[in-house]
Amino acid sequence: MAMIRPAPAQEEAPSPEGLAFFETHVRPVLVERCLSCHGPEAQKAGLRLDSRAAALEVGGDSGPPVVAGDPDGSLLIEAIRYDSYIQMPPDSKLSDATIDRLTEWVAMGAPWPAGSGPEDEATAGSDPFDLEARAGHWSLQPVVEPEVPEVSARGWPRNPIDRFLLARLEGAGLSPAPEADRRTLIRRATFDLTGLPPTRAEIEAFLQDDRPGAFDRLIDRLLASPSYGERWARHWLDLVRFAETSGHEFDYDILTAHRYRDYVIRALNEDVPYDRFVIEHLAGDLLDNPRRHPTTGTNESILGTMAFFFAEGTHSPVDVREEMRTRVDNQIDVLGKAFLGLTIACARCHDHKFDAISTRDYYALAGHLQSLRHQYAFLDPPDRIDDRVLELQSIRSALAAGLPRSEAAGPPALPLREGDALFEEFSGDSFDGWFPSGQAFGDGPTRPGDVTPDPDGGLLRLEAGWAHSGAIATTLQGVLRSRTFEIESPYLHLLVAGTGGRINLVVDGFEKIRSPIYGGLTIGVNHGDGPRWATMDVSMWQGHLAYLELADGASSNYTGGTSGLWPGDGWLAVGAIVTSIHPEPPVPAGEAKPGPARGRVAHGELPAEAASLIDRYRQVAAELPEPTLALAAAEGTGIDVPVHIRGSSKNLGEVVPRRFLEVLSRGREDRADNRLALARRIADPANPLTARVLVNRLWAHHFGRGIVASPDDFGAMGQPPTHPELLDWLASEFIRSGWSIKHMHRLIMTSSAYRMSSRLFPEAEAADPTNALLHRMNLKRLEAEAIRDAMLALSGRLEPKLFGPSVPPYLSPFMEGRGRPSNSGPIDGDGRRSLYINIRRNFLSPFLLAFDFPSPATCRGRRDASNVPAQALALMNDPFVVEQARLWAGRAASAPGASPEEVVDALYESAYSRPPIGAERERAIAFLREGEAAGRAGVEAWADLCHALLIAKEFRYID
Known about the structure:
- The protein is of the alpha+beta class.
- The chain has 30 helices and 18 strands.
- Mean pLDDT is about 90; it is low at about 1-10, about 120-125 and about 560-565.
């Protein structure tokens, strides 16, 4: 009998998010790992995987390998999991992260661009790509402020926003919904701006304020609240896939991640101009005059660059080039979507299928991101450490001047063999070509005549020509990084001395986890003054790009490590670095170069005035504070990246100079060939995307949907704006206001449109069924964090403290797996807002996940708002909810002199911002009496009522 396959059901068009997911996470894997055997040139087992029809309908000898929406029923997923006799790819298993991405893709329905077939997998750049035609897309046109339209109903508009909306409504024969009542307005505005419910006192004060401008004053008060920054920081953290661990096998900590979260909160509360905020994110480490913390003086600007490093990481990856490529791809994806609303990552394997983004654009940006480095930056203001270092330097100079000159010939040239090459000998006056971080290594190698006090009260004469982290003071911390170089020889020999120092070779930017594969690329130095050779066997990495990282004793704990940051003395000195074909160093260490300590002058041999200088030196050195550190970007050697044909690092095309997107650079001479220039181009008012994207995000959070409904995709596959003139007017106003986000909140929220009721009117719904014209306010469900935080506010457990290290998450007995922390946090997170609960990628909160907390994998400008049984189960059974209901009941029932009816009124007003209506009060009292009759008297009965109020949909929806 012939096999008869049913005709495929008519399917909905894939979402822009789904297509972007395919282009970012699926197509590159298919191209690199599958199509050589299952593509246009070969079809093993009769299977092709270069089109959706081939993968989902035609299949091969075993039928279609992909069943849309059913990963467990898909042979493809079974094969890549190595769960059966079919194991693909046959040469090596895909990484766990890649398997998870392919599984997620199948589960979401296997979205694949329409018309994508075998011809799509041609060599990158061979597809027709008409930049001029694609450059005509609406979002790439300059922002031009439109005329504010005239309207008939002149009494309704409060500001230009209303006139733009009303003009469209009148054109459709519609009228705006009436204004919501005051209780609805204060609840709406308070949750929108603070993520917390209004208190009964705040509601009463607003109801009693009968002066003109009461709502405007309410908005101003909420914008001035510290809770505003917490609320809107959470929205921003979704865009940068914020998490505090790296995921994968062991879920290692991303050290100091909480400092970034706190930075965002402060920036929003201070209303830092958005263009400045953008520049800080992309190049905050390169600013000559960084923004400083208002009280501590620490560098705020550099903290923005931490956002580059919140991507998921692989523990000790087998293919470090692929790890680098995946990391850079994620950074490009987040940069493009968060700031520009463009799916740039879709151009990794080929020119973008729909937008004016070529694969050359992709690799031009990849060069910028491949050039930056991972560091733990020193944040302190100059007067905290730098001024003390200058004093120490001055004392050392004075001590050296007081000693008789001891002339000595410089060290002989290092004898090199054939096959040796001198990488560095530190013979100059500066670290030319090296990148210092911190103060330990000073401004250059040791110089003739340099001295430093020793622990016994004498002086050490230092040999010239060493990169020495203890020359100024062993208590200083710092790191010295080399230029990026290609590993050509199989051995690297370093002449070293020191105590507690470390040397890392960072290959292809992989910094974090050293062992097991990368353990040989780290050398500990702990033998003291005598010079020794340290050798790295780098034969496995020949042809790879790398740089050296020299870390002093204390700093070695936060380079290449994951366990934590801690203080400590120590020092490292490096005198020469040689690349070689020989496994042995060129000469014995003693013959290579004199050690860093040339000799000692005993205390008794010093001039009398030296004693007071040494005493002062010791005092200043002892008072050196521990530096304030944070993960951040660091500048490295500029790297131009070749096009990876079909996205493969094994098939390279022409090298593309670093620059900005071509479509946004026409008519400009500056190429933006460095990261700071790139940041300024993105934040340029002439950029048509940056302001549009941000005001659309604000609009979406206030109205439940953006003017552009696809906030992360302003390209051809995104949704067109419902009100393009309004969008451009808002973008123009945003720039004119000095990029003030608070100004835009105030403008949007003081409009008549924002005050509309969400009530449905049949005639209006028939004419505008999706509310695209915004004839009424949209009903909005609270996000997971706001639901949890509101419960804490009602129970009285909410801790108002801002900032600080995150609280460990509560781990139920069912939350098992590799990387599970040894200790669980408290059920209620010590009362801290959800923003401050540690986000561990492998152990996300089940309660928050039930309410669509997003997996921190990429930019998410719009969260899902599902309605699933797990939400009801979480509200009924989660111990956190049960405990908050009990605490809330205890507060309410203990109100002195309050009758049961008054307590019920207070509960309703606290939960819903309104008193009970109709028979609600009577039903609540009857419920309490039934509980008492069943043996649940007192607080227990009240707790049941409070729990019921928390479960109700009204609690988690904003009218």
